[in-house]
C-alpha cells in the first residue's frame, strides 16, 4: 500500500500545470532521449525539415518546428510553420509561413555560399511580417550551393534563427541572350552568362560582316553580365537602320545572335 501511495503521489506531481511559457529549443536537444515523454506532457523539439510535424505514442506528443508559444498541456502554437527555398529560372525563391499569433516585427534572410560558414544578410531592409512571406534572391550563380537562415525579429530586439536550408543550382553553359529591346532605338542591352572566368570579346557586325563596334575585350568574372549598345560605331556616329549581329567570344567558344535597329 505504501508503494502504491508513493506511485500515486509521483503521478500527481507529473500532472501538467497550465502556465504560459516560451520555448526556444536548440536543434537536437531531445535527439538522444531526455525531456518529458510520458503522461500528458508535451515534448518540445526542433528539426531541419521545412514544416512542423507531429508524432505521438502512448500518452506523449512530440512536435517539431522552429519555436513554440504555449501553455503546458494546451495546443502548441508553432510560430514558424515552414521555411522553404527552390531554384526558379535564374533566381532562388524563398518562402515561409508563420502562425497567426506569431509576435514577430519582421524578418532577415542570411546566406552562405558553398562550404563557407560565413553568413551575410541579403535583404537591405527588414522584411515586413506578412503571412505567407516570400523573397527572391536574384544574386545567385548556376552550379553553386547556397545555405539560408531565416531570422525572426522579436519586440525586445532579439532575433531567433531558423534551421539551415540548402539549395544547389544546376550548372549552366556559356549563354548569349537575345538583346532587349529588339527591335530597338536608340539603345539595347546584351546579356550573357559566363560559367567560369575567361577572356571575353563582344563585337557588333553589320549585315555585310564588317565590324561596327567592340563592346567588350578583356577578362571577365564568372556570372551574368549586361552590356548596352547605343547604336554608335567606333567613330561615335549613328549607324543606319538595319540588321546587325553581336558575336561573343569566351575562351574558345563563339556565340552569335541577330538584332534589328529601327531609326
Describe this structure in words.
By secondary structure, the chain is mainly beta. The chain has three domains: 19-78, no CATH class; 82-168, Immunoglobulin-like (Sandwich), CATH 2.60.40.10; 175-261, Immunoglobulin-like, CATH 2.60.40.4070. Helix content is 5%, strand content 48%. It is built from one helix and 21 strands. It has one helix at 2-14; strands at residues 20-23, 42-46, 53-57, 60-65, 68-71, 77-78, 80-88, 91-98, 106-113, 120-121, 133-137, 145-153, 159-161, 165-168, 175-176, 188-194, 198-206, 211-220, 223-229, 242-250, 253-261. The strands form six sheets. Strands 9, 10, 12, 13 and 14 form a five-stranded antiparallel sheet that branches. A hairpin with a 2-residue loop joins strand 7 (80-88) and strand 8 (91-98). The longest helix is centred in the first third of the chain and has 13 residues, at 2-14. The chain is elongated, with a radius of gyration of 29 Å. The termini are far apart.
Amino acid at each position: 500500500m505504501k508503494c502504491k501511495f508513493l506511485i500515486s503521489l509521483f503521478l500527481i506531481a507529473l500532472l501538467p500545470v497550465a502556465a504560459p511559457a516560451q520555448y526556444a529549443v536548440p536543434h537536437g536537444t531531445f535527439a538522444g532521449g531526455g525531456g518529458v515523454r510520458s503522461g500528458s506532457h508535451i515534448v518540445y523539439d526542433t528539426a531541419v525539415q521545412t514544416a512542423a510535424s507531429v508524432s505521438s505514442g502512448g500518452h506523449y506528443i512530440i512536435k517539431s518546428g522552429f519555436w513554440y508559444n504555449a501553455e503546458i498541456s494546451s495546443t502548441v502554437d508553432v510560430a514558424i510553420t515552414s521555411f522553404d527555398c527552390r531554384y526558379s529560372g535564374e533566381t532562388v525563391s524563398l518562402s515561409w509561413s508563420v502562425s497567426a499569433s506569431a509576435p514577430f516585427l519582421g524578418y532577415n534572410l542570411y546566406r552562405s555560399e558553398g562550404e563557407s560558414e560565413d553568413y551575410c544578410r541579403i535583404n537591405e531592409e527588414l522584411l515586413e511580417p506578412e503571412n505567407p512571406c516570400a523573397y527572391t534572391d536574384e544574386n545567385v550563380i548556376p552550379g553553386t550551393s547556397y545555405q539560408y537562415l531565416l531570422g525572426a525579429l522579436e519586440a525586445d530586439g532579439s532575433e531567433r534563427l531558423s534551421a539551415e536550408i540548402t539549395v544547389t543550382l544546376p550548372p549552366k553553359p556559356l549563354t548569349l541572350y537575345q538583346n532587349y529591346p529588339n527591335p530597338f532605338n536608340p539603345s539595347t542591352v546584351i546579356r550573357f552568362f559566363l560559367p567560369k572566368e575567361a577572356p571575353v570579346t563582344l563585337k557588333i557586325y553589320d549585315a555585310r560582316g564588317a565590324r561596327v563596334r567592340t563592346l567588350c575585350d578583356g577578362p571577365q568574372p564568372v556570372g551574368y553580365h549586361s552590356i548596352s549598345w547605343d547604336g554608335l560605331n567606333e567613330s561615335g556616329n549613328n549607324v543606319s537602320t538595319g540588321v546587325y549581329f553581336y558575336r561573343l567570344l569566351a575562351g574558345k567558344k563563339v556565340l552569335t545572335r541577330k538584332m534589328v535597329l529601327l531609326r
